[in-house]
Amino acid sequence: MRQVDFTYPNGTKALHGINLKIERGKTTALVGLSGAGKSTILNLLNKFYEPDSGEILLDGINLNEYENASLRSEIGLVLQKNHIFKGTIEDNIRYGKIEATHEEIIAAARKAYLHDQIMELPMQYQSDAQLLSGGSSSASL
Prior knowledge:
Distance between the termini: 26 Å
Strand content: 5-15%
Radius of gyration: 17 Å
Helix content: 10-25%
Largest sheet: 3 strands, antiparallel
Structural class: alpha+beta
CATH class of the largest domain: Alpha Beta
Strand order of the largest sheet: 2-1-3
CATH superfamily of the largest domain: P-loop containing nucleotide triphosphate hydrolases
Number of strands: 5
Order of helices and strands: EEHEEEHHHH
Number of helices: 5
């Protein structure tokens, strides 16, 4: 990120002049006080939003040159708040990898310690995702 500014659609200025370099092959954690811009940076890196100014480069190429699905398939996120989309549990887990097999979905649920809870539901992986308790970890492929 080079000199990135970002303002949310509601007018909230979230980032001003941010410079950030993430080293290839290393795990990077963004930590800081609530409202410091951590989630905003993640949203920008995943192209959920575009910066007002500045640029975001990946391997020297502007992020806008990357296809969203391809980019997002290479980024793993662990967010403080889980977001459950309307739909089945399987659909929500599949969001991390659209072409995932049912076996891969089960494996992801096991990694997130959700499989046993899912199996107790009447329709298991076809149950409404909002039936999962809010305290569970999110599953991502």
